Amino acid sequence: MNHADLAAHITARFPAVTTSEAHGELxxxxxxxxxxxxxxxxxxxxxxxxxxLADLSGVHWPxxxxxxxxxxxxxxxxxxxFSEKEGVVEVLYILRxxxxxxxxxxxxxxxxxxxxxPSVTRIYETANxxxxxxxxxxxxxxxxxxxxTRILMPDDWVGHPHRxxxxxxxxxxxxxxxxxxxxxDERAIREVVR
Amino acid sequence: MDGATTDTTTTEHDEARASLQxxxxxxxxxxxLKAGLSGTSxxxxxxxxxxxxxxxxxxxxxxxETLILNMGPQHPSTHGVLRLVLELDGEIVTNLTPxxxxxxxxxxxxxxxxxxxxxxxxxxxxxxxxxxxxxxxYCLGVERLLDIEVPARAQAVRVILTEFNxxxxxxxxxxxxxxxxxxxxxxxxxxxxxxxxxxLFESQSGLRMNHAYIRPGGLANAVTDDFVERCEALLKxxxxxxxxxxxxxxxxxxxxxxxxxxxxxxxERALALGVTGPLLRAAGVAHDLxxxxxxxxxxxxxxxxxxxxxxxxxARYTVRLEEMRQSLRIIRQALDTLxxxxxxxxxxxxxxxxxxxxxxxxxxxxxxxxxxxxGESMEALINHFKLTTEGFTVPAGQVYSAIxxxxxxxxxxxxxxxxxxxxxxxxxxxxFVNLQAAREMTRGHQVADVIAVVxxxxxxxxxxxx
Lengths: 194, 466
Known about the structure:
The structure holds 2 protein chains of 2 kinds.
Chain A: H1 3-13, E1 18-22, E2 25-30, H2 32-44, E3 52-61, H3 72-75, E4 88-96, E5 103-111, E6 116-118, H4 127-138, E7 141-143, E8 173-174, E9 180-181
Parallel strand pairs in A: 2-5, 6-7
Antiparallel strand pairs in A: 1-2, 3-4, 4-5, 8-9
Chain B: H1 3-26, H2 28-34, H3 55-62, E1 67-71, E2 83-89, E3 92-99, H4 107-111, H5 118-123, H6 131-146, H7 152-180, H8 184-205, E4 214-215, E5 218-219, H9 227-249, H10 253-259, H11 267-272, H12 278-282, H13 289-292, H14 313-336, E6 357-358, E7 364-365, H15 367-376, H16 378-389, E8 397-405, E9 408-416, E10 424-428, H17 430-434, H18 438-442, H19 447-457, H20 461-465
Antiparallel strand pairs in B: 1-2, 2-3, 4-5, 6-7, 8-9, 9-10
Helix pairs in contact in B: 1-2, 6-7, 7-8, 7-14, 7-19, 8-9, 9-14, 14-19, 15-16
């Protein structure tokens, strides 16, 4: 099936989801309520047949402050449906079918004040480490995960480092005579948009 | 070691022991420790205090209970800083929990604060045994967002170098895997052979590892005049040396006993656990992204995808060895059809401004270009500084670019918001995902087999922890 057929096949079963295609990749935009049913369908349906959850990652879109032009005309990428009024954590599931050789992305957004999604570990066991990573970095609580603990950061770490509201920077370095040298700020190179 | 030094060490040790005994005589807790048992902790788990070489007291104390053994993070056979918590019933592993994160360096986060070209210098440092694959996967993603086509010569050189990198990575796997099973000869051979491939990388990029040679839009600089010659020399050398490995290992009774039937995983379980790469192919699934989703013009070369149906550690050995031969086939064809022309896109808004040539001192320079920007064209100078400080902008969007790394599917999920820095780059690291299968592959085996299984997974902790 090509991307148009795949999109039609999925929307026929789940009328609530929307699809988009950009850079030769199909994205299915779903919500938390349909996520588990959608992924189960993608795995078990003969026509879609995605045996492998290739990747699961998060992207944080904080509320407000985006003055970035979305460039829908040049990229074909739809305007990000995440409003600037409320911040969201977007979780992306990359599904790969080895039988049919296609890839599709399922995108789900959850409120960044209390990010919460159902776990898909019952459908794809490989999501175990991935969901722990997204929890570690973005604070998304995956309901039904067997062991939702931090995976890469230390257990006693405070905060979720990949969120955009988490500060990046060095630590103050104590020098002799109790002088504190502030961390270098050249990391914040100027953002350029053309 | 001379006699005097030995005496000193022994004396110090005796003193320490005497002081411990003195403490235990007065402190009731220490006395209990010395007896082999510390009583029970809050959650009812018996804790043991061991000084080494007193395993009999462990056996007595444990009895029929489960022993939880901590292996790593600093253990020579855990490939870096991997920590494994083993639950043992006697010598049999009933559960294994990998604990990772000791090498976490926040590369993905740091990349969000650097421009797009600087990203390659970060990602090349993740999976340090296959740096060129990391660069390639990232650059393919950025190029897809930019919607640019890389010149044919750059594509062919990318394929040649990444396939050499695959061989180098498998050499290290042979070397470390062999060493962990007691074969130091394989270790010295493996690292020795890898050096020759690293020499090639050094001659082209100036660096033996962490090259940052593949850049969005092409390559950092053109290959040297003796590139083909160097590749030909390697193509002649590697097949002979692969034969040596086969002679040493394939029918070696210890190698066979330690690997056959160890760490078996079937295709269905492997897919459920997200296992890809040689592990999946050893389980009988001929899945290779070079065939399924070809990149860099690799579809024009003829090669096979080796598989096995055994799914055990020995099958992974045969699959990897055959993969190295297939990589040589790809390189042979790519060298024969190596196109001429530029190695960077023509677009001056993206291309690295100068094509520096590597000097004898290992530094790059381009005198003609410096003359141009410093003496002839103000606009060229402005463009140079804008590109090297701000970098170029990448149109907004999301891509997932995946290639077949030596360890499996290496994917870069890149999000751009149209600025000169990535908004988010997530890396799907094959080592990270494959490590999840270790629990299932070791269950029911003995402790010594854990080493063989972890070696057959070939995790690179730099990639796992990122």
